Amino acid sequence: MYQAFLIKYGEIGVKGKNRHIFEDTLVSQIGNALKPVEGSFIVRKENGRVYVEAEGDYDYDEAVEALSHVFGIVGICPVVLLEDEGFEQLAKEVISYFGKAFPHIKDQATFKVVTRRARKNYPMESMEVSAALGECLLDAYPNLQVDVHNPQVVLHVEIRNKINLYSKSIKGPGGMPVGSAGRAMLLLSGGIDSPVAGYMTARRGVKIDAVYFHAPPYTSERAKQKVIDLAKLVARYAGPIRLHVVNFTDIQLYIYDKCPHDQLTIIMRRYMMKIAEHFANEDGSLGLVTGESIGQVASQTMQSLAVTNEVCTMPVYRPLIGLDKQDIIHISEKIGTYETSILPFEDCCTIFVAKHPVTKPNLKSIKKSETHLAEKIDAYLQEAIETVQTIRIEAGE
Ligand code: ATP
Ligand code: MG
After folding, report:
1. Beta carbon of 194 within 6 Å of any ligand 1 atom
2. Closest ligand 1 atom, CA of 299?
3. What are phi and psi of 235, to 5 degrees?
4. Which of 109, 120, 329, 379 has its CA 20 to 30 A from that of 180?
5. For ligand 1, is residue 296 a contact (CB within 6 Å)?
6. Where are the alpha helices (DSSP H) in 325-392?
7. What pLDDT, on a 0 to 100 scale, did the predictor assign at position 351?
8. How many CB atoms lie within 10 A of CB 241?
9. Is 213 a pocket residue for ligand 1 (Cβ < 6 Å)?
10. Whose CA is nearest to atom 25 of ligand 1?
11. CA separation (Å) from 270 to 85, 113, 267, 367?
């Protein structure tokens, strides 16, 4: 019954000059999101509004699902568009719309009509239109009552070139449209946290690339597939992702061989950051993103984070820094990554972890241990970078 959607977006931060950039990005992201949906759509801006109009038949549920993943959207209002054929015809259409849109309003229900005239040559004032349509609805549905303060249903009638009827708003994901901020490199593992960190960064309008470190044969092909699957889930929100898969085996074995085992994790993480920063520079990223949260594990104490951070020249963003594990799980369930994240495949960190890793690493002592790697580490880093496999990830189940 709906030929179009009116897209509501947040206004905060998009005043003035930036507004059209925000809107244009939103329009293009909506277009991308709707590509796989059955049907053909026109997305356009009109008077500070964004409309999605279907050309002919389309799959309503799929379209709503796709739109509910587009950052920047606060509400999705399904709209009926009517030609202006006089008030009587409008009243008929409104009555029929109400019956179809709310088939279950049998008992008492309260409503009000809100009319806006964007076209001032319409022969009735807005208030008159609202009052008259209200009367017609009361006549047609005896169980209805008008409540102007706290109605269950608000019927919006907007008189534009066509007349717009809408009364439902489906919640959008909020945030800023992807592409309205810069680009960042996400360190994506197979865990619960980093996909959530990617989602939260993309939600601020940042375009995401990702890097995953694996250690075959210590980590399996299935562990890698799990990360690819997670990237696909994140891409439903973030758009296409370039995923760099880096072979980390030689570096890991070398560290294992040369450095104290209680420092393994921290030294490994420093090399991960270095390599991630290399690809970030190549891709034009302005920062790194991790799923770290203070105190979650030994490598995420304030001291450990400081030592890890020390190798980076780029800002490192940690969007989960203040969240409890339960908060993070909650978001991962909401965005649909949780089930995949908890599949039991080793990621490269779990195999080489020491029983008692340092929790308060000292930078000097870490650097001293790293001098034991002087002979071959540069060659190994070079090789890890040269043998990278870059996969273009599209949104998927
Ligand atoms: P996650 O749930 O994201 O795996 P975690 O709780 O397991 O996080 P760590 O293993 O300490 O924590 O990793 C901290 C962060 O380092 C991760 O959130 C991720 O950003 C990055 N990271 C860890 N392992 C890898 C890996 N194999 N490839 C890419 N990034 C990684
Ligand atoms: Mg992990």
Report:
1. yes
2. 11
3. -65, -20
4. 329
5. yes
6. 325-335, 338-341, 348-351, 363-370, 377-386
7. 64
8. 23
9. yes
10. 189
11. 69, 61, 5, 10
